[in-house]
Design brief:
3 helices, four-stranded antiparallel beta sheet, alpha+beta, five-stranded antiparallel beta sheet
Length: 178
Amino acid sequence: MTGRQRSRTPGGRRRRILAGVLGLSLLAAGGTVATVQSTEARFTDTEFVASGTFTAFRVPAPTITGCTAVNNALGIFESVTLVWTSPYPANGVRLTLQQGTTTAVVPTANITTTGPSNGLYTHTAFLNQGLLVSLLANLLGSSTTMTVNNLLVGTSWVSVGAVRTLNVGALGIGSSCT
């Protein structure tokens, strides 16, 4: 039997008819399938927006109210007194001395604090020649920058410094604070 003869048998004919019916059914079904229409997604999400402003905290700078250099009767430097106000108590302030490349921090034991009065503490640093020489080594014919900063205790935040300069003449004669 050849392939032609086999297809003419009643079983082969039924298969062909069944295949044709299935094919037509699929074509008919394909034409009736609803096409998906495109839509735009639409939803709402209510947000509560508050308006306002904010500013970053800045450690306030101290205010130097006095700087007095004292010379003895011969005009030789003896001491300098630096006075400043701050909203911070003694553990919230720092006095730094700089002369050339040498920098020293004045021990808090050498700073007297009073107050607060109207929200401000008054700090007074009395720096005699002996203390200054021990911190800086040499005062003769020099300029020493004194910088006061406020510190926010418990953080590394430091204010902008308030600055005065101690000038000591050659051989320690004639000093001034500017």
